Amino acid sequence: MPIWLRTFTFNKIKDYYEEENRQAKKAQNQSGSGKSITTDGKVTSPEFLKNAQTPPPSSSPNYTTRASRK
User: Fold this and answer.
1) CA 44, CA 38: separation in Å to the nearest integer?
2) What is d(CA 66, CA 22) in angstroms, rounded to the nearest whole number?
3) Between residues 3 and 68, the one the model is more confident about
4) pLDDT digits (tens, 9 = 90+) for 17-59
5) CA 6, CA 13: separation in Å to the nearest integer?
6) Residue-by-residue DSSP string for the chain
7) For the chain, what percentages of helix, strand and coil (3-state, to nearest 5) are there?
8) Which of the residues 6, 30, 43, 65 has the least number of beta carbons within 10 Å of its own beta carbon?
9) Which one, of 14, 10, 15, lies nearest residue 1 by Cα?
10) Which residues are registered as beta bridge partners of 37?
């Protein structure tokens, strides 16, 4: 691969990942308006988890782990 093509390809890939990082940071700053750590150091749950219900406890399995006798 010629040097000029190698540097061109590298720069295009680098630009792509820099733009992706820039967009990710922008999205993170927009959605990060609610703080998850209070001033006294306690962690709070996000809004979508406050209304979530816990699933019922699962029952014990209805199968045996022993090998069958023939």
Assistant:
1) 7
2) 56
3) 3
4) 999 999 988 887 776 555 566 677 777 776 666 676 666 667 7
5) 11
6) --HHHHHHHHHHHHHHHHHHHHHHHHHHHHHTTS-SB-TTS-B---HHHHTPPPPPPPPPPSS--SPPP-
7) 45, 5, 50
8) 65
9) 10
10) 43
Work out the number of other CB atoms within 10 angstroms of the CB of residue 22.
10
Confidence at residue 26, expressed as pLDDT on a 0 to 100 scale: 86
Q: How far is CA 40 from CA 33, 54, 60, 68, in A?
A: 18, 27, 41, 59
The predicted pLDDT at position 14 comes to: 97
> Two tokens at 41?
């150091």
